[in-house]
Amino acid sequence: MPLLEVRGLTKVFGRLAALSGVDLIVGENEFHGLIGPNGSGKSTLLKCVAGAELPTKGTIRFGGRDVTMDTPTERARAGISLKFQITSVLPALAVYDNVLLAMQARSSTASLIFSRTRGPLHERVMHMLEQFRLAQHSTERAAALSHGQQQWLEIAMALACKPRLLLLDEPTAGMSLEERRITGELLTALKQRYSLVIVEHDLDFIRGICDRLTVLDQGNMLDCGTVSRIQNSSKVREVYLTRV
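RE: above sequence
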Protein backbone atom coordinates (compact mmCIF):
# COMPACT_ATOMS: atom_id res chain seq x y z
CA MET A 1 0.00 0.00 0.00
CA PRO A 2 1.45 3.41 -0.96
CA LEU A 3 1.99 6.05 1.71
CA LEU A 4 0.36 8.77 -0.44
CA GLU A 5 -2.20 8.10 -3.14
CA VAL A 6 -3.68 11.00 -5.12
CA ARG A 7 -6.33 10.13 -7.71
CA GLY A 8 -8.00 12.37 -10.29
CA LEU A 9 -7.08 15.57 -8.47
CA THR A 10 -8.65 18.66 -9.99
CA LYS A 11 -8.38 22.22 -8.67
CA VAL A 12 -10.27 25.05 -10.34
CA PHE A 13 -9.85 28.75 -9.55
CA GLY A 14 -12.67 30.58 -11.29
CA ARG A 15 -12.19 29.73 -14.98
CA LEU A 16 -8.65 28.45 -14.48
CA ALA A 17 -8.05 24.73 -14.03
CA ALA A 18 -4.77 24.66 -12.11
CA LEU A 19 -4.93 20.84 -11.94
CA SER A 20 -6.92 18.51 -14.19
CA GLY A 21 -7.26 14.90 -13.05
CA VAL A 22 -3.73 14.46 -11.70
CA ASP A 23 -2.58 11.18 -10.12
CA LEU A 24 0.39 10.86 -7.73
CA ILE A 25 1.62 7.76 -5.92
CA VAL A 26 4.42 7.93 -3.32
CA GLY A 27 5.75 4.91 -1.44
CA GLU A 28 7.42 4.61 1.95
CA ASN A 29 10.95 6.11 1.97
CA GLU A 30 10.51 7.25 -1.62
CA PHE A 31 11.81 10.58 -2.88
CA HIS A 32 9.43 11.81 -5.59
CA GLY A 33 10.08 14.91 -7.68
CA LEU A 34 7.52 17.21 -9.31
CA ILE A 35 8.82 19.04 -12.35
CA GLY A 36 7.32 21.09 -15.15
CA PRO A 37 7.15 24.63 -16.56
CA ASN A 38 6.05 27.58 -14.45
CA GLY A 39 2.29 27.51 -13.93
CA SER A 40 2.00 23.77 -14.48
CA GLY A 41 0.32 23.18 -11.08
CA LYS A 42 3.22 21.80 -9.02
CA SER A 43 2.82 24.07 -5.99
CA THR A 44 -0.97 23.77 -6.15
CA LEU A 45 -0.62 19.99 -5.98
CA LEU A 46 1.56 20.26 -2.87
CA LYS A 47 -0.91 22.62 -1.23
CA CYS A 48 -3.80 20.24 -1.94
CA VAL A 49 -1.88 17.34 -0.38
CA ALA A 50 -1.06 19.44 2.71
CA GLY A 51 -4.57 20.85 3.03
CA ALA A 52 -3.67 24.47 2.29
CA GLU A 53 -6.05 24.15 -0.68
CA LEU A 54 -9.06 21.84 -0.99
CA PRO A 55 -9.44 20.07 -4.35
CA THR A 56 -12.43 20.66 -6.57
CA LYS A 57 -12.51 16.95 -7.44
CA GLY A 58 -10.49 13.84 -6.71
CA THR A 59 -9.25 12.02 -3.63
CA ILE A 60 -6.17 12.10 -1.44
CA ARG A 61 -5.34 9.07 0.71
CA PHE A 62 -2.50 9.08 3.23
CA GLY A 63 -1.47 5.98 5.10
CA GLY A 64 -4.55 4.22 3.72
CA ARG A 65 -6.97 6.85 5.05
CA ASP A 66 -8.98 9.37 3.02
CA VAL A 67 -7.74 12.85 4.03
CA THR A 68 -9.24 14.76 1.09
CA MET A 69 -11.30 17.09 3.27
CA ASP A 70 -9.11 17.06 6.40
CA THR A 71 -7.78 20.35 7.74
CA PRO A 72 -4.05 21.19 7.54
CA THR A 73 -3.81 20.54 11.30
CA GLU A 74 -5.37 17.10 10.95
CA ARG A 75 -3.00 16.23 8.13
CA ALA A 76 -0.01 17.47 10.12
CA ARG A 77 -1.04 15.25 13.00
CA ALA A 78 -1.32 12.34 10.57
CA GLY A 79 2.27 12.94 9.48
CA ILE A 80 2.32 15.39 6.55
CA SER A 81 4.65 18.40 6.78
CA LEU A 82 4.95 21.18 4.18
CA LYS A 83 7.74 23.70 3.69
CA PHE A 84 6.64 26.53 1.41
CA GLN A 85 8.92 28.21 -1.12
CA ILE A 86 9.16 31.45 0.89
CA THR A 87 11.15 31.02 4.09
CA SER A 88 9.02 31.51 7.22
CA VAL A 89 11.49 31.18 10.09
CA LEU A 90 11.09 33.48 13.09
CA PRO A 91 13.94 35.94 12.39
CA ALA A 92 14.01 37.65 15.81
CA LEU A 93 14.39 34.36 17.70
CA ALA A 94 17.50 32.26 18.14
CA VAL A 95 18.07 29.39 15.73
CA TYR A 96 17.70 27.01 18.71
CA ASP A 97 14.35 28.50 19.71
CA ASN A 98 12.96 28.18 16.16
CA VAL A 99 13.47 24.41 16.27
CA LEU A 100 12.33 24.17 19.90
CA LEU A 101 9.04 25.92 19.14
CA ALA A 102 8.44 23.60 16.18
CA MET A 103 8.98 20.59 18.46
CA GLN A 104 6.68 22.06 21.12
CA ALA A 105 3.81 22.35 18.62
CA ARG A 106 2.25 19.10 19.87
CA SER A 107 2.96 19.64 23.57
CA SER A 108 0.08 20.14 25.98
CA THR A 109 -0.80 23.67 27.09
CA ALA A 110 -0.02 22.79 30.71
CA SER A 111 3.47 21.55 29.91
CA LEU A 112 4.19 24.75 27.98
CA ILE A 113 2.88 27.03 30.72
CA PHE A 114 5.07 25.37 33.33
CA SER A 115 8.09 25.12 30.98
CA ARG A 116 8.31 21.34 31.24
CA THR A 117 9.37 20.68 27.65
CA ARG A 118 12.58 22.68 27.08
CA GLY A 119 14.82 20.37 29.13
CA PRO A 120 13.52 17.06 27.74
CA LEU A 121 13.67 18.40 24.17
CA HIS A 122 17.18 19.90 24.38
CA GLU A 123 18.98 16.83 23.09
CA ARG A 124 16.58 16.45 20.16
CA VAL A 125 16.93 20.14 19.24
CA MET A 126 20.72 19.97 19.22
CA HIS A 127 20.71 16.74 17.24
CA MET A 128 18.50 18.36 14.60
CA LEU A 129 20.75 21.43 14.45
CA GLU A 130 23.84 19.26 14.08
CA GLN A 131 22.15 17.25 11.33
CA PHE A 132 21.51 20.46 9.36
CA ARG A 133 24.94 22.01 10.09
CA LEU A 134 23.48 24.73 12.29
CA ALA A 135 24.68 23.74 15.78
CA GLN A 136 27.39 26.39 15.82
CA HIS A 137 24.73 29.03 15.12
CA SER A 138 22.28 27.84 17.81
CA THR A 139 22.39 31.06 19.87
CA GLU A 140 22.36 33.44 16.89
CA ARG A 141 19.19 35.10 15.66
CA ALA A 142 17.72 33.32 12.65
CA ALA A 143 17.91 36.62 10.75
CA ALA A 144 21.72 36.41 10.87
CA LEU A 145 21.82 33.17 8.87
CA SER A 146 22.52 33.10 5.16
CA HIS A 147 19.62 32.40 2.80
CA GLY A 148 20.69 28.78 2.41
CA GLN A 149 21.05 28.29 6.16
CA GLN A 150 17.56 29.72 6.72
CA GLN A 151 16.21 27.17 4.26
CA TRP A 152 17.99 24.38 6.16
CA LEU A 153 16.56 25.72 9.42
CA GLU A 154 13.05 25.65 8.01
CA ILE A 155 13.49 22.07 6.78
CA ALA A 156 14.67 21.16 10.29
CA MET A 157 11.54 22.82 11.70
CA ALA A 158 9.34 20.92 9.22
CA LEU A 159 10.88 17.67 10.50
CA ALA A 160 10.64 18.62 14.18
CA CYS A 161 7.43 16.65 14.78
CA LYS A 162 8.73 13.56 12.95
CA PRO A 163 6.38 13.51 9.94
CA ARG A 164 6.10 10.51 7.64
CA LEU A 165 5.92 12.69 4.50
CA LEU A 166 7.83 15.92 3.87
CA LEU A 167 6.66 18.28 1.12
CA LEU A 168 9.25 20.79 -0.14
CA ASP A 169 8.45 23.61 -2.56
CA GLU A 170 11.63 24.76 -4.37
CA PRO A 171 13.94 24.50 -1.35
CA THR A 172 17.07 25.48 -3.33
CA ALA A 173 15.64 28.67 -4.87
CA GLY A 174 18.15 31.51 -4.44
CA MET A 175 20.93 29.23 -3.15
CA SER A 176 24.53 29.25 -4.31
CA LEU A 177 25.92 26.19 -6.07
CA GLU A 178 27.69 25.11 -2.87
CA GLU A 179 24.52 25.52 -0.81
CA ARG A 180 22.61 23.41 -3.35
CA ARG A 181 25.24 20.69 -3.13
CA ILE A 182 25.01 20.63 0.67
CA THR A 183 21.19 20.65 0.53
CA GLY A 184 21.31 17.54 -1.65
CA GLU A 185 23.53 15.82 0.91
CA LEU A 186 21.26 16.85 3.80
CA LEU A 187 18.13 15.55 2.07
CA THR A 188 19.74 12.30 0.92
CA ALA A 189 20.63 11.56 4.53
CA LEU A 190 16.89 11.59 5.38
CA LYS A 191 15.96 8.83 2.95
CA GLN A 192 15.81 5.94 5.43
CA ARG A 193 13.35 7.76 7.71
CA TYR A 194 11.05 9.88 5.55
CA SER A 195 9.22 10.05 2.25
CA LEU A 196 9.64 13.23 0.24
CA VAL A 197 7.75 15.08 -2.48
CA ILE A 198 9.79 17.96 -3.84
CA VAL A 199 9.11 20.68 -6.39
CA GLU A 200 12.29 21.85 -8.11
CA HIS A 201 13.37 23.67 -11.26
CA ASP A 202 17.00 22.56 -10.95
CA LEU A 203 16.80 19.33 -12.94
CA ASP A 204 20.36 18.25 -12.09
CA PHE A 205 19.58 18.62 -8.39
CA ILE A 206 16.28 16.74 -8.50
CA ARG A 207 17.69 13.92 -10.63
CA GLY A 208 20.43 13.44 -8.05
CA ILE A 209 18.12 12.77 -5.09
CA CYS A 210 14.81 11.43 -6.45
CA ASP A 211 13.69 7.87 -7.17
CA ARG A 212 10.76 8.85 -9.39
CA LEU A 213 9.54 11.97 -11.17
CA THR A 214 6.12 13.26 -12.15
CA VAL A 215 5.99 15.85 -14.92
CA LEU A 216 3.14 18.36 -14.98
CA ASP A 217 2.23 20.65 -17.86
CA GLN A 218 -0.63 23.16 -17.78
CA GLY A 219 -2.31 21.30 -14.92
CA ASN A 220 -2.09 17.88 -16.56
CA MET A 221 0.16 14.93 -15.76
CA LEU A 222 2.44 14.64 -18.76
CA ASP A 223 4.48 11.63 -17.62
CA CYS A 224 5.58 9.71 -14.53
CA GLY A 225 8.30 7.17 -13.88
CA THR A 226 11.90 6.58 -12.95
CA VAL A 227 14.49 9.29 -13.51
CA SER A 228 15.93 7.42 -16.51
CA ARG A 229 12.49 7.02 -18.08
CA ILE A 230 11.70 10.71 -17.73
CA GLN A 231 15.12 11.67 -19.12
CA ASN A 232 14.36 9.64 -22.23
CA SER A 233 10.74 10.79 -22.64
CA SER A 234 10.15 12.58 -25.94
CA LYS A 235 7.04 14.27 -24.50
CA VAL A 236 9.05 15.72 -21.62
CA ARG A 237 11.90 16.86 -23.88
CA GLU A 238 9.41 18.69 -26.07
CA VAL A 239 7.93 20.58 -23.12
CA TYR A 240 11.32 21.57 -21.75
CA LEU A 241 12.59 22.68 -25.15
CA THR A 242 9.53 24.75 -26.03
CA ARG A 243 7.95 26.01 -22.80
CA VAL A 244 10.51 26.27 -19.99
